[in-house]
Amino acid sequence: MNNEKTVLAERLKAAMEKRKISSAELCKRTKIGKSSMSEYLAGKFTPKADKIYDIALALGVSPLYLQGIIETENEADITPEDKEVLSIFHKLNDHGQKTIIVTMKSYTLMPEFSAVSFDQAAKDILTNPLFPADQEHSNALAEETRTQRRIEKAKK
User: Can you list the domains of the chain with their CATH numbers?
Assistant: First the structure.
């Protein structure tokens, strides 16, 4: 199972290789230190949103792609609504970003808001938590999922 750090590292390496950009060159373009870039590439550390944006810009890919949120590298494939959400998201601090992501994930469990089935949303949340170190958020989502399943079963 891939986690956020691994996905970012894999996609970062692939984008660099595809564009024939070395780590040193990417550091120069982004003004990110070599040791930090090395940690990102090794999947040991996840850069903050502003650094992800800088890296994506330097590589000509979407920040959402680097983060594993979308499957396409091309920014042109992102809707205006996606761009607006991303723009607002980047204006938040780390706590705000975590809160928004948890909230968005919980909305995928609500049939009136979700574009995917409840079972798929629950599976995505429980098998690939975005912030595994933040156990409080993961536990809250798991409890919400169990509650929603009980409600869905009671309706049948």
Answer: 4-89 (1.10.260.40), 94-155 (no CATH)
Is residue 56 within 8 Å of 65, Cβ to Cβ? yes
For residue 34, what are its two tokens? 């070599």
Largest CA distance in the chain: 59
Q: Residue 70 in contact with residue 62, Cβ under 8 Å?
A: yes
pLDDT per residue rounded down to tens, the chain (156 residues)? 357 778 899 999 999 999 999 999 999 999 999 999 999 999 998 898 889 989 998 998 888 888 887 777 766 566 788 778 878 888 888 888 888 887 887 787 778 887 777 777 777 666 655 544 455 666 666 677 777 778 878 887
Cβ pair 93, 104 in contact under 8 A? no
